[in-house]
Fold these 2 entries.
Entry 1:
Amino acid sequence: MASETEPPDEPSATDPRTLAEKIEHLFKTVRPRTGEYTHEEVANDIRDMGGPTISATYIWQLRKGMRDNPTRRHLQALAAFFGVPAAYFLDDSMDEQVEAELALLAAMRDSGVRTLATRAAALTPRGLDAIREMVERVLEIEGPPPPPPGPPPPTEQ
């Protein structure tokens, strides 16, 4: 039993995220331009893609941590909807790779980044190297960008 003077147990940066936290993060990160997907949109799209029957209420319960033991088919359907590997929900070692892909997706929502990426696709390798060097130089001058919203990245022990 903890005494009143002891700080409450808080998850550390190295603690794996819960299923609910991962689903919440996907809702916040993988979204249309108009805002987050609704639970109804996710359930309907999963059904329309030929996935298993899943209700908006059940998705909400998973997202809020009220349910935490979905079927493999439900996890696969949610993964397909959000465009991540199903292993993301079960394998904490996938977090870093998926987070990098989600950060790229979020950056591509910015019209300036999207325009630059589209234009850069037409450059030669030499031109891409020149742009990469310029970006690195600007980052040296301005400092690193602020961290993306969401849970802090895991730290190495």
Entry 2:
Amino acid sequence: MCSLASRLIAPTLALRARASHAARAARSTARAGGRSILVVRAHEVKADSAVSMENLDPEIVAFREHQSTAAKLSFADECRTLVDLGRYGVISTFSREHGGEYPAGSIVGFASDDKGRPIFALSSMSGHTGDLKANGKCSLIVTAPGFTGAADARVTITGTVAPITDAADQKAAREAYLAKHPDAFWVDFGDFSWHRMDGILGARLVGGFARAGGVSGTEYAAGATDPVAGFSAPIASHMNADHVDSLIAMVGHYVGLTVEDAAIASLDAIGMNMKVTRGGESFKIRLPFTEPARDRKAVKEVLVGMTKAAAKAAAEGKKEAEEK
């Protein structure tokens, strides 16, 4: 799946770049030979943008080539990781108030089991519980920690939610939920019961710019939770607060992009998602680690090594410039 994600980057960038003044961000479905075809119209991008294929600045061309093959989590692993990290999401059910024909969204707490199936403690007094009793088909949207807008990752899982009837499964669900929500004493109230999303049809990931795709329910179940993402926030916070110059130097050395500012948005076992600013334009980039890191110690060692290498390269470049 990693290779699939990489192959998707280049065409996505091209689609965005080729947008003309007539193109508008939209999707439409056309009929051809009895089949439905999804037609995607790309966003309009300025020719001098760092993400435009029309920008032929050698540095930008090299940057696009780097990003097209930059190592990243598979779609399945990223979906599973977002669900595992999540505590709250928006569940969309078929509302009984509108004849079961229109969706209604509710914010719900959840946990997940070892297969990535969302677990819910639902009250019989909640509207969405009644909706699910009438029609268990629904979707759950989970956003990345610290989500602020469209540039941040989110996943939509589609499946069927049903009550958990097996006593052992109910006990396991309670343990998983309280591990995620330790203050949820109310789960033992009489009007609450345990539910789980079984029969997951698939998951749709939007990871930010040029990062979108979907996986089947089988692929989602086969995915794995990233071992680093759970402690990404404190590492990113430390680096962003105390080592901005090092981050800028790493982007220049490893990505080949000159930027005025750089910050880590998130980390995983194989790299960093970063927000950079270049020429007044802010956008997300991917900076892979020089080697995988699966625990805190390994992440620290990789970051220290990359920082030293970037600083050395910057010093050598400055010396060469002075000698000319």
